[in-house]
Amino acid sequence: MKRPISRKEFLTSSTKTVVAASAGALAASVLPAMGGQSLKAGLPTTAASTWPWPYATLDREDVRKRAHKAYYEGGCCYGAFHALISALADTHGDPYTRVPTQMMYYGEGGAVGWGTLCGALNGAGAAIALVTDRTNARLIVGELFGWYTENPFPSTLSNDYAAAHVFPLNKYDKPLQQTVSGSPLCHVSVSNWCTGSGFNATSPERAERCARLTSDVAAHAVDMLNDFFAGRFRASFVTPDSVTGCMGCHTAVHPGNVQPSVKMDCQQCHKENFQHLY
Amino acid sequence: MKRPISRKEFLTSSTKTVVAASAGALAASVLPAMGGQSLKAGLPTTAASTWPWPYATLDREDVRKRAHKAYYEGGCCYGAFHALISALADTHGDPYTRVPTQMMYYGEGGAVGWGTLCGALNGAGAAIALVTDRTNARLIVGELFGWYTENPFPSTLSNDYAAAHVFPLNKYDKPLQQTVSGSPLCHVSVSNWCTGSGFNATSPERAERCARLTSDVAAHAVDMLNDFFAGRFRASFVTPDSVTGCMGCHTAVHPGNVQPSVKMDCQQCHKENFQHLY
């Protein structure tokens, strides 16, 4: 019972109001209109005016495979970003063909190798932020970060994919040690895994671990986006007690030295300060 | 003595070879060809095929003002990214109008408020990576990170701009305490400044500090890009002794638990481990 959407309706509906309510149904009708609108006009669409870009359901396992391959082509940040954007581009074309996904190369190794934000999170974050408004991107990307800190990587499924040679690039097919980072930081995530697995950070096994992790992050981003646009997304991450316990004083009694929104586990870096608790 | 560039020459020259040699002169001739090519064809250019996007000299102080304003409109990451991309879009139009700069909202506060990578660095990094190939983006963005860790923010110039009401948005005109973060992490950068200045992380003074810092980062990115495309960029950041000293053992004797490329100051998080050095 879908009727064609007019240009005026599209321009109105492709803003954040699309995201807020009955997003799944709207996305399905908006997407063909988006393609038709730009092709019929014969002029480049001003992307900024139509942001957030339209979205329709993606295939999680397709994106997982794309991300694993793209990791080896351009690193973790490119891997996650390219997997999501190329999947949307292959299905819907414009406007997704307009973004050179290579722009996220720089995010590799926690951003140009500095070990800060995990590139898979950074790349997935940028892709999520292309299709959701500011408020919802913050909600979904924040949930992705929380999930990342609490889950073991690589996932059992990605280990199984490698063992069964399901990934397009078959670099290493043995199962890899699973570790929980407790942090969205590349340095912590990689170092914890190296300590747990015994592999060097420069080893091909570590690279394969990050390829599988990138595929896990991109796949989870698909799950969340599919849920969000179907109206069934629920954020479940709860800031750990170790953080909320610190913030109880450090934003009130000692207000000057901590950001209240920080959710990284305090003890990972501030072990020496925990003596005053005991 | 410039001659018109053909479509074939453009498609060839707009790759990394443009960046590698005599980039300044080429950029000046490539940019008009880029606009003409897409408008004459009447079809959306496939952005991915022409990456890196063409660049020509930007006005550092114009970008500094844009970034300060954009910070208040969309946070630090959007602020730096939007300043650079909107300056290129205003001068050259397509392809820069194709990127919805709102896609970088998510990077605010160290990425959705988690305090990881400083959003100004993340946004500037994405913009740099749109106009330079992977190798050079890594070089330039890495230098930006290094510069950030060693310089006091906000800069004296940004403090002076605020005092003289030069910024388009005049939120707070007093000079702000200058602190050196020693880290590209938002949490460290903000917390050090809050400790040094005595202002709370939720205060308007802290927001203004980050607005000025965002303007400083975007302006420095312009300096580096202008230098790079004029063939005079030289990386000068040297990894601190505190890091190289640790890495001497931690990538050789204890290879399993540290990424060799990490340049963040080890002592900021690993104070308790430094007892074995003394």
Explain the overall architecture:
Two copies of one chain form a homodimer. With 278 residues, chain A is mostly helical. The first copy, chain A, is globular, with a radius of gyration of 20 Å. The termini of chain A are far apart. Chains A and B meet through α4, α6, α7 and α9 of A and α4, α6, α7 and α9 of B.
In short:
Chain A is built from twelve helices and two strands. Chain A is mainly α. In chain A, helix 5 packs across helix 6, helix 6 packs antiparallel against helix 7 and helix 6 packs parallel to helix 10.
Number of helices of chain A: 12
Q: How many strand elements of chain A?
A: 2
Our Rg estimate of chain A from Cα atoms comes to 20 Å
Main sheet properties of chain A: 2 strands, antiparallel
The helix fraction of chain A, in percent, is 55-70%
Low-pLDDT parts of chain A are 1-49
Q: How do the SSEs of chain A run, as a string of H and E?
A: HHHHHHHEHEHHHH
Question: What distance lies between the first and last C-alpha atoms of chain A, to the nearest angstrom?
Answer: 65 Å
Category from helices, strands and their pairing of chain A: mainly alpha
Greatest contact pair?
Answer: A-B, 77 and 78 residues
Mean pLDDT over the residues of chain A: 81
User: What's the overall geometry of chain A?
Assistant: globular
Q: Which strands sit side by side, in order, in the main sheet of chain A?
A: 1-2
Question: Quaternary status of these chains?
Answer: homodimer
Residue fraction in strands of chain A = under 5%
